[in-house]
Amino acid sequence: MSKSIDHVLEESRLFEPPAAFVKNAAIKDRATYDRLYQESIEDPEGFWGRMAEELHWFRKWDRVLNEDHPPFYKWFEGGTTNISYNCLDRHLDSWRKNKAAIIWEGEPGDQRILTYQELHRQVCRCANVLRELGVEQGTRVAIYMPMVPELAIAMLACARIGAIHSIIFGGFSANAIVDRVHDASVEAVITADGGWRRGSVLPLKAAVDEALERCPTVKNVLVVKRTENEVAMVEGRDHWWHERMAKVSDDYPAAELDAEAPLYILYTSGSTGKPKGILHSTGGYMVGTYLTSKYIFDLKEEDTYWCTADIGWVTGHSYIIYGILANGATTVMYEGAPNHPHTGRFWEMVDRYKVTVFYTAPTAIRAFAKWGDDVPAKYDLGSLRLLGTVGEPINPEAWMWYHKHIGREGCPIVDTWWQTETGGIMITTLPGAMPAKPGSAGLPFFGVKPAIVTEDGEEVETGGSGLLVIQCPWPSMLRTLYGDDQRFREVYWSKFEKQGWYLTGDGAYFDKNGYCMIIGRIDDVINVSGHRLGTMEIESALVSSPLVAEAAVVGFPHDVKGQGICAFVTLAAGAQPSETDTETLREHVAKEIGAIAKPDIIRFTDALPKTRSGKIMRRLLRDVAAGSDSKQDTTTLEDESILNKLRAET
Ligand code: PRX
Prior knowledge:
Number of strands: 32
CATH topology of the largest domain: Rossmann fold
Strand content: 15-25%
CATH superfamily of the largest domain: ANL, N-terminal domain
Distance between the termini: 28 Å
Radius of gyration: 24 Å
Structural class: alpha/beta
Low-confidence stretches: 1-6
Helix content: 25-40%
Bound molecules: adenosine-5'-monophosphate-propyl ester
Strand order of the largest sheet: 12-11-8-6-7-14-15-25
């Protein structure tokens, strides 16, 4: 096993959940978890079938799991349902009809509360508008929006019809929209004039306009008025949301969809240049996100739950909208930046809405810690009873800060490991049933069978690190990569094809408590602020600039972001770097992909270290970027002087 994934941390502190928490927890002890876990592994069909019955099905399934053609698994085969129905209509026959479904706050401070009934009405209207615009079951609809309630309404409306949504994070550029629209032959786009971010308007509609010049498949664009900035409306193609919504009925029966009907595509980075269109389907994803939300966030009727992610990432799909609303809980949505207009904004909101369950990312926690202990201390955070983290390994210092300054030492913390591909949380502690351990994700959720194996598929002894694989299918798993079954097989299943294991792409180990410690990615994927970026994607963006001849991108440890981006760049025709080149190239990457992909550091070099066969040795560059002395083997290097020069300049 490569040194780079060897672990260095050994954390032994365990934090038991407070007695008051355990008393009301859905799962109160380890024995209950063990019993349910055992059942879920020994009899997955019995277990998942029972859990699925908590939700509404128009027609019950014939078979819980069809494993006839791995890796193309089918869940709840023969069943029909609708996730929008389960998130909305299911609650309308109960007292929940006038419960807040979404509590929303805009960055400027405006607020909206949508009850389940009101959200249902809006979703029905939106479904009617989309139908008028030609959207049907199976139509691909791109959504490029700020964090406003209309985003939730749009996705639930697509789900209601059975249209496949493809949400594109509002921070991505026009080029990223083009790639995603092309890949899925998107026919309709839902966007907004703009969104608020740190007091400025993100010009979303302008980015869509630029993108659509190159996207002939798109016939209609629905535009929400949010920031009231001037936008161009293309006659016949562009429609104002508020005008169309006012003219349609607020009734739209949810389509009875096959359990395996595609629900959405969400693009994520892989080791190669082109983002992968992760495809999730209806029934299994619904059951998976419902059950994980229920037990991991221990949702209670009176909870006010807030996940600070953007819906443009999978965390927002599963744990702001689908899993949370399927449980009939109240979900908080916030539009803007955590430090606008001041660094206490999140805590002010926790205090204002009396948030009880709070879910965020380690990168945010590290930023909060940097802004000072006195910031959260100014607010009443007494409503909080449970905290969560997601997106990247959390360093024990950040964990302790969260525990002390946000949880005030009285809230369990769930460190939830999962991926866009897994659809829902896979490894975590259950908050009332077991102690949490700083920096460790914990135990597998029900129905998940993780293992640590060598490259050859041998299981590694407890304590040893290796590749994290999942040894059985689970309901919320991705079904394929949109339009590319071959790549789906190759990326996730080919390495352990014989065994039928899913390759996560992460390195990990089990510690002496049996808890899973995630070390990080083992491929060319970097995790910047909890967001996955492929190094190849950034390299292609750099090379597309006429200034650049060649580029190699690696991650390096970064105090706040977890990993920063370092680009080693060779200029075209041996040009000498000028002072402005760094900024030009950073802006170029922002334009090609989005601001999150801007390199933190650009290092110009005459040449890149390569093997004799011409492969760039990124693992050596990783050490140079981290400023660490490389003990790695350099014997395959073609010209060691290049590396020595780069090291000397560090
Ligand atoms: O490396 C793991 C890391 O994030 C990757 C998945 O990224 P993405 O698909 O963007 O989904 C992020 C939100 C679910 C994983 O392969 N990761 C995610 N959660 C954790 C984590 N690493 C350590 N601990 C976590 N809790």
